[in-house]
Every structure is written in C-alpha cells, then in structure tokens.
Amino acid sequence: MGHEITVTVNGKIYAGSVEPRLLLSQYLRDELNLTGTHVGCDTTSCGACSVLLNGRAVKSCNVLAVMADGSEVTTVEGLASGGEYHPIQRAFRDEHGLQCGFCTPGMMITAVDILSNNPQPTESEIRTGLRGNLCRCTGYHNIVKAVQSAAAELAS
Amino acid sequence: MTTSIASPFEYHSPETVEEASRLLSRYGGGARLLAGGHSLLPLMKLRLASPEALIDLGRIGGLSYIREDDGGLAIGAMTTYAEIVRSELAAAAAPALAEAAGEVADTPVRNAGTIGGSLAHADPAGDLPAVVLALDAELVARSARASRSIPADRFFRDFMTTALRGNEVLTEIRVPGQGASSGSAYAKLANKASHYAVVGVAAAVRVEDGVCTSARIGITGAGPHAVRSRRAERILVGKAPGESSIRAAAQRGGVELAGQFNEDVHASAEYREDMARVFTGRALAAAFERAMG
Amino acid sequence: MTTGTTIGTSVIRREDARLITGNATYVDDIKLLGMAHMAIVRSPHAHANILNVDVTRAANAPGVAAVFTGADIQEQLGSLPAGWVLPDMKMPNHPPIAFERVRYVGDAVAVVVAETPQAAADAVGLVDVDYEDLPAVVNAEEATQEGAPQLHDDAPGNVDFEWEVGGGDYEAASADAEVVVRQRLINQRLIPNPIEERGVVADYNRGTNQITLWTSTQIPHLVRLLFSAVTGHPEHQVRVVAPEVGGGFGCKLYIYAEEVICGVVAKILARPIKWISGRQEGYLATTHGRDHIADVEMCGNRDGTITGIKTTVYANLGAYLSTFAPGIPTVLFGFTLGGPYRMPNVSCKVYGVFTNTTPVDAYRGAGRPECTYVIERLVDMFSQEVGRDPVAVRRKNFIPRFSNGHEVSTGVTYDSGNYGPALDRALEILDYRGFREEQRAARREGRLLGVGLSSYVEICGIAPSAVAASLGAGAGLWESSTVRVHPTGKVAVYTGTSPHGQGHQTSFTQIASSELGVPLEDVEVFHGDTDKQQMGTGTFGSRSVAVGGTALYMSLQKVVEKAKRIAAHQMDVPHRQVTFENGVFYVEDIQERQMSWGDVVGEAYAAKNLPPQMEPGLEAVTFFDPENFTWPFGTHIAVVEVDPDTGETKVLRYIAVDDVGNVINPMIVDGMVHGGVAQGIGQALQEQAVYSENGQLLSGSMMDYAVPTAEDIPSYETDRTVTPTRVNPLGVKGAGETGTIACSPAVVNAAVDALSHLGVKHLDMPLTSEKMWRSVRDAKAALRAVRRERAIAGRASN
Predict the structure, then answer these.
(1) Domain CATH code at residue C727
(2) What is the per-residue pLDDT across C756-776, written as a single tens digit (0 to 9) for each?
C-alpha cells in the first residue's frame, strides 16, 4: 500500500508514493537518484548514510521514508551552494580527510551537525562526536584535522 | 537471513494518543509503536521482528518537551536524546539523565532516538532505564480511555518486557525534584561495537547535614533488565558519605543480579558482576561530588 | 598551471572533487534499464548435506523473475579456482552455489532474481531447503585431529597443504643457545570491513555475446580472466569494470561466487542483474583475514644476541580455498621471519587447514602482520628473559646498513635497509628515557602505563613474476601502463592497477606531469576497466607505485624518447643533443633551437615530417616485471594505559617512523600509514570474529564486531627515513600496508610492558577490557600468593 509523501531535498520539493518499509536512504538513492548518500551496514552502525533531517544529522537507513513526510532533507549533494564548496567539503579535501570516499558524505554531514551544536569543539569532542561514523581508510587522523580546520574557517 | 529489507507492514501515523491506542487494540498485539525507531527498525530490517503494522507516534503533537514540573521535570516521550543533552533544565535538575542521554549511541542516533522509545523497548543494555530507576521517575502510560503513572521500579519486568499494557502508549517521564544538595550521575562501560552498556550505573543521592539521606542506584546492561541495587543503597543512607562508604556500597552494587548476570560474546557474567561494582563506585563518587559540591 | 616536478610534494587529490560532492559512482549507484535484483539464499548451517531445495513458493511469489539452485546451473557456474598453488596442495571443488553439501554458514544454496530488491528479499524466505546437519569444526588445530569432521573428501584430516621454509639449522641453534623462549600465539580472525561492502552489476548483450561485470574489486583484469576460466565464456567477450571502489583491504582481491553467479544469470535471463551485499551478509560471504594458531620460539644468548626463530602454524583457510589463500600464511608469512635482524637460523612450518567457517584470505598486510607479530612478540619476550632493554636487543641484532641487496637465511634478498635511524628517530619522538621515568612514577600511583616497540621489514612491491610463480602464484604479477599523448598534448595514462582509495589518480598524475613537464590538469589517469586498459594485475601488496608506477615511468620514458627523436629531426640535430626539460625540447648552447611539448606532439600526429621509418602517433605501452620485491621497514612505538579496575586499554601515543624509499606524495603516504595503524590498533585491542563451536558467527554484525571509531584511536606522530630501493627507477618501495604490519605487536608489547611488573609475560589479542581486567586480577592474585608463601616460609625458617 503506497503512502503519499512530500519531502524537500536540497531545497527541491519531491512528491510521490512510497511503500511503508522503504527507508529514507532507499528513497533518496533509488527514487530520487541522489546516490551520494551511501549505505554501509544494516544495523545503524556505520553512519555512511547520514543526512540532515530538518537540520540535524540522522542515519537515513534507519528512518522510514514515510516518517520524513513534510521534512527538509540535506544530502551531500546539497552541501555546496552557489558553486562554492561548503567549508567542511573544502576542509576534507585540503586536510586529506578521505581516501576511498565511501564514508565521506555521512562523515561530513555528521561533522556539520557537530559544528552547528559546538562551533569550537576540542579534539576529544570531535572524536566522540564522530563515533557513529566509521571510516576504515584514514584512521580518523585527518578527518579530525578537517573538522578542526572547518571549525576555524567557520569561526573566521 | 541476510536481508536488510524489512517484511512488509502497514503504517499508521495517528494524530492523537487515543487514536494510537485504539490502533494498538485493533491489531491485538500485531502492531508496534514507532517512536524514533532506533531500536525497532534495525530488528525489522534483519527480520528479527516482523510486526503487522507500525504506529508512528511522530505525528502526535505535544509529546516532545522538557519542562519544569512540581520542582522536577516532565519529559515528553518523543523527546530525543539530543534534546535532553542540549537542555539546561535537564542538566541542572537531573545530571544523570543528561549524562546518560549523551552516552547513548552516537550523534546521528541521538538526533532521532527518543527517551520514550528507549524505555518502552527496554533493551537490557539501554542507558536510560538505569537513570529513571535512580531518579525514581514515574512513567505515564495512556490508553484510549485511561491514564496511569507507573513507578520506574515497577516498569521493567523482564528481558525487553515492561509493565505497559497492549493498548498503552508511554507519553511522559516525570522526574521528581531531587531536592537541595542532591546529585546524580551516570557511569558506563560501553560496548565498543554497539555503544550499548556492557554495564551502566546511575546513582542519585542526597546529602543533608553531612549525612546521606537518600540514595538510589539503577543498573543496566548487567542482567536481563535494569534493576535497582537496593542493598548498595542501604549501606549509604544514614552515613556520612566518603570513600569508605562508597567502597562498601560499591561492593554490593548489583548483588541483586547474582546468578542472572548476562553472558555473551562481549563480556562474561563474572566480568559484568565486577563492573557492576566498579561502576557503582564511580557513579556514586560523581553523584556525591555533585551533591556536596 | 603547475610546472616543474611535483614528486615528493603533497598535491591535493584530484579524485576528491567527485567524492566530496556525491558525484562518484560506486557499484550500487549503477542502474540499467530492465535491471533485476538478485538475493542469495544462504545456509544457516555450518556443515550440512542438502537433501532438497524446493523453490516452488519463491518462484511463484510476486515480482520474482527466476530462482536458481546450485544443481540447476552447476555446469554454467563451474568451480572457483585457487590462484596460488603450493606443492602437494589439494584443490577441492568450490561450487559458487552449493548443491550437495554446505560447508559454512553463508554458503550459497540458491539465488532469487526479482523486479525489486524488496521482492527478492521477500522471496528468499520462501525457498525451502532441507538440510541434514553434520558436525562442524571451526578451530584449525582441532580440525587436523583424529575424529574431527571432514570437510572435503580429497583433503584428509582437513589439511590442504603442509609448507615449510627455513635456513640454517634452528634445532642445533636452540640446543646451543643459552636462552629459548616459547609461546603459543593466537592471531585472531578479523573481518576486513571496507565501508562499502561488495556488490556486482552484470549485463549481457545478446547481439555481441558480451558480458559486462561492474564489481567492487581490486583486480578487474584477474576477475575477467578467472570469470572466463570458470564459466567458459570467452575472455575477449567479458568486460570487467571496477567503478569507484569503497575500500578493499584485501577482501576484494578474488573471484567471488557472486561475480560468477551474476554474470551467468544475466546471460541466462538476458537482462541486467544487480546484487548488493548487506553488511551482515558480507560478514558471512566476504573473506576474513588472519586466524593463525602458532607455536613459536626464539633462541639466543644472555648478551642479547638472537640466534634463531621457529614457528609452527595452523592457518585457518575456512571452508574453501579463496583465490590467493594458500599464498598468504606461507610465502607472505615465512620468508621474512628474520625481520630486520641477523637471524641465521629460521624454521617455519605451516599447515593450511579447512574448517567450517568463512574462507580466509588476504587482509591488509596479509601474512606479514602475522609474521611481524611473531617476531616482535618474541623479541620482547626474549629481551625480558635475558633481562635487557628491548630497544638494546633490537639494535644489537639489526642487520647493518646495506644499499644493494642483502640475502637472508630464508633465501630472499632484501633490497636496501638502514634500520637503526628509524628506531632512533622513533625513540627521539617519544623521549624513551623520559617515558621510562614517567612510567616508574605512574606505577607508584598504581597506574599501569606501558611502551611497546615494533621494528619490521615487509615484503612489498609484489612481485617478480618468475619468483612468485616458483612459489605458487598462478598469474604473472607484473604491472602495465599505457601513456597516450593526444594530439593537443593532453596525456592519458592507463594503468593496470585498480585503486580503491589510494589516490592513484593523483600520484600517477604527479609522475606523468613531472616527467613530461605538463601541468597536472593536462593529465588524466584511467583505471579499472578491462575494455580501456591493457591487461593489468591490480592493486594489493603495496605494489601500485612500486610496480605500476614504474611501468608508467617506463612508458613515459618511451614517449619522451620518441618525442626527442621527432624534435631532433625537426631541429635538424642528432637526437642525443636534444635535452627535454620542463616541457621544452632544446639543444644545449643553441638558444634559438627549441620546441615546446605541444609543437612536438603536433608533429607526431601531423606526420608530415617525421624521421624516416618512424610511425606517427605518440603512445607507449609497458609491462614492467620487477627483478625483486621491495622491503620497506621502520619502527613503530605505542604507549598504552590500562585501567586497573576495568581493564580498559587506551593507546595514548602512537609513533610511526617508516622507510618506504622515495615518496611521490607525502600526504597520501601518511594517510595510508594512519589507516593501517588504525586497523592494527583495532586488531590489537578490539576486533575479533568469533565463532561458536557449531560454526555460527557470533560477531555477525557491526553491533558485535568492533571496528575502531574515532574515539578509539589517538592522533598519530609520524615521520620517515628515506632509503631508496634500486629495484625500480623511482626508488619507491610501497606504503599501503606498513601500518597494519607494524602496529599490532607494538600495542601488545606496550600492554604487556604495562603489566610486566605484575609478572605478565604475554597477552593474546584482542586486548579487550575483560581480558586485561582478568590479567591484572590474576597477576595481582599470583603476586599475593607468592608473598604469602614467602611470609609463611619466612615464619617457618624463623
């Protein structure tokens, strides 16, 4: 049985019918073709699928698309604006905070959430804040540096 | 066995608690409430749970709030962990609650998971059950026709089993005022993979004229469900708090669970038994420091 | 525009633009018209006979296009081969879909193809399989014992191979030695966990008979070769594409059942098929790593001289042979058992054993972490036994500096080495003496602080093909490149390597840009598509730059050489007089005679005035086969603190000083060291794949298997020494695995050091908080008992 939903994703309004069990991650990837949001596990562990839902990072593999009806979603595709990278994107590139890139969209989204709550986090706050986003390539060292560098840029 | 797609189900998003309750009755046990979904949906994706219907509480207005209530706190069941963490009111009135909410899972999960969802799911390793026990909270349950308040220490009945009836919706958590010179704290040994509690201990104490007049300890992760550690509490009351009384109380942390300590791939029963002692000591030390600081 | 060489500089990565914007294309991002979705019915039993598979209900379910059992299509699917064959090794059948017996939880028994992933998932539960349960065995040593359940009729005792390597005479050395230390070491089973699980999209074109596989792999060319060998579909009508690959770490280095199944099913149904692994599914169906039970010993003298090392290993292969499995615990483990030390006597015996578990193959480091772990644990135990500082013992036994080959007792020749400076630098960063003081002070307060070292040599730059073949490799392990200069002067580089996070697009661009004097943005690097690239090998074994980068370098030399001849002809001078620098061809001392890169390239394609007999165009292909492996080395140091009450163990500092020869892009190399170290810390402290005795994977999800998070890892302190190799003209050794190869023993040595004053001599990984809590408790109890006995003895003697 389909449910009609309307979701604003990266500023664009989408309306459609979804099966209740369709996850927000599947809706974004399969229905809207926004494949920048990745899925890396089935237990809400890895955080690769993190998106901003009404401004807060959530793991989209654990939200039903129907639950997002009426919400605003920002995915990695919506981070940059006006042809300019978001500071977190620039920082991940400049600090080499990514290697294979698979965890990166979710990692950046969670970092945006961390910085919106706590604009000048300590190293330890960054590490704890990112513990729900797994990266197997970078050993986190440069991810932490990237978040620090984005914090500095946002503050200036 | 390896799917990450849930079995089909019907979805309802009632706008009132009464409607939700009536839907529960209608499915007669075949429906589950969705309150953030951070405990339930993972089970459904693995087909470890396949309810006939989900009743989403997310569209019911007025279930998400933290407000002062008779010297204590009233918290709407749909309040997220993140909202609790950010609440100055919660930090001041019930530091153990804010601390535990901040220890739950991780940043994105705390933005979506709710206190009511966690308590009603009653995962034996959830953080919040220990806290509501220690804070002597009341859990408000409503059905289509009635409303009742369940004391936390009568709420957790067994492994993932609560005192909620089939047609009841948990709507509010009431944390009584802890009084002047009181303190509470939550201390946890986290599972490194899931960040659930291997053992988590919440302590709430009150000190008047240099004497501990009240102490409550809730332990999670260690046994089939969260429990009060009354034997440890008794050691403290009537005594001047200090290292030796904390140590003596910690020695009895979790003795109520003797023979029932969890044993799994993460920790043996023996280890959990000792960690119940260690973290009882740590939670008490922090709670007393707050009470006397 | 960048000019001049960028070799050795931290150029920002060119691949990042697509990765940080969500514009990269991983396998699961591919959608083809008419694509169906495949789900796999997997065995819940570790060992069972398949009595019957009834697909009726599934086949009739809504949205289901087809259901296949192993028996239905066994002819088309063939048997998955081992690509590394040791002497006297058994080669049991490995059907991609089991049809008589299942041998591990996760073994495929049927596949469902449906219109949507949802319909496929629903139908999986409707395939009814009757099993006859058989006893299972999961422990490699137990599997070799009499009465153990037998997995394959042609591998009696479950032993697939017995393999030996050695040098000198260990038994004589240990008989003569003043000290022998012995230990059983468990190198636990790990799950690689790239954040992108595996996935395959297959397409079949009836008109051309071409099968295309998009697969998350490190080795597209070898997948094409093996797919063709297994299915009989002609190799030239198979195209394999590795699109963006989300990490590999060794577990995407094989021909997998699902690649074969998807290709075959796409051909049968003549429509595109997609299979994407879930994480829990991947935990069962993607290879695991490590899993050694080793009895090890080291002998030497009281002055700290080490004279020999011996190991006997039960290496768990899992239920079937994965592609490279036999080579990992043998060739990549045994030859470096001397480490960076003069080790005149080496004895190594390895039993490769089948068990009812997921197949085991390479995981980052692959054999070499296990090797370093044996050596470096033993060096610490030996140091403790002879009462000498582990730093002094290491230094005393280092092979002295050499720059042009040093043959060790196992018969291999290290390329170049200078082990002392890396150790010195690491100690300097730590302030070793200062730390020892801090440790003493901490112990007085009851804190448990420890430091651990790991000095290593690794075998990388895989591999000289003839040597590898003599050791069992089933394919040449050279690497290839094509450099194609377009008429406009832009440069296309085609490499046979296949990166999945290593940043080849940047490093290889740096090499090409530097050699040709063209801006970085004028170079594009193409990889991972067998229809675009010449035959290649792939990315593993820290080989990409050492072997593939060299192939590129050689193609660039060929291009430059031809371009110089064209320039000389145009400028009317002998070609030896032409110098090429920063994109300009000129003749020494004759200022007015010079041509730009663009001019010469233009001439190459205009072809109106080329030297006699010269073909038009500007393009070169190279297949480079190195004469030797490369042998990076270094010293890592970990500082840990153990909580005496809970056993929680935290790495406080981590220092890595590596020598990987010359470095193309320091930022990228550092990044790989960081990632490797995190995996090493993960193994040392928290990761383990645990099976129940009946073969159920207990750590079956990310909720139970503890991949390290940012919170579990410290910031790293890294540095390098530089000892170039002469094995390749770039002087590079390879940097992809140093972290995992060096790290785990450093952390374990540190944890043992933290508890050494309590009498603890060894701890097995992972050092979970419970294990450490137990160790502290038992050690303290033992100390108390000793004191009590002494007191009683004291009273008795009074």
Answers:
(1) 3.30.365.10
(2) 999 999 999 999 999 999 999
Domain residue limits at A108 = 87-155
How is residue C544 annotated by DSSP?
I
What are the chain A neighbours of B114 within 8 Å (beta carbons)? none
Which backbone phi and psi does B288 adopt, to 5 degrees? -65, -40
What confidence tens digit (pLDDT) does each residue in C672-725 have? 999 999 999 999 999 999 999 999 999 999 999 999 999 999 999 999 999 999
Are A61 and A108 part of one and the same domain?
Answer: no
CA-derived radius of gyration, chain A:
15
C365 touches chain A (CB under 8 A): no
Strands B10-12 and B53-56 come out as parallel
A10 and A59 belong to one structural domain: yes
Same domain, C298 and C275: no
Helix (H) or strand (E) holding B26: helix B17-27
Residues A24 and A67 in one domain: yes
pLDDT along chain C (798 residues), means of 10: 76 98 98 98 98 98 98 95 96 97 98 97 97 98 98 97 98 98 98 98 98 98 98 98 98 98 98 97 98 98 98 98 97 97 98 98 97 98 98 98 96 97 98 98 97 97 93 94 98 97 97 96 98 96 95 98 97 94 90 91 97 97 97 98 98 98 98 98 98 97 97 97 96 96 98 97 98 97 92 79
8 Å CB contact of A45 and C244: no
Q: Which is nearest to C360 in space by CA: C327, C337, C336?
A: C327
| Cβ–Cβ under 8 Å, residues C221 and C249 | no
Q: Which residues of A touch C701 (CB under 8 A)?
A: 41-43, 45
**Which residue segment(s) compose the domain that C129 sits in?**
31-134+195-247+252-285
Q: Does one domain contain both C663 and C699? A: yes
B3 close to C (CB below 8 A): yes
Is C281's CB within 8 Å of B2's CB? yes
ipTM (interface predicted TM):
0.98
When divided into structural domains, chain C yields a total of: 3
- Token digits of residue B254: 């979790």
| DSSP assignments along C248-268, one per residue | -TTTTSS--HHHHHHHHHHHH
Domains of chain B: 10-55 (3.30.43.10), 66-175 (3.30.465.10), 182-292 (3.30.390.50)
Task: Tell me the residues of chain B between 33 and 92 that have a Cβ less than 8 Å away from chain A.
Answer: 34, 37-38, 41-42, 44-46, 54, 56, 58, 82, 86
B271 touches chain C (CB under 8 A): yes
C 188-217 residues inside an 8 A Cβ radius of A: 193-197
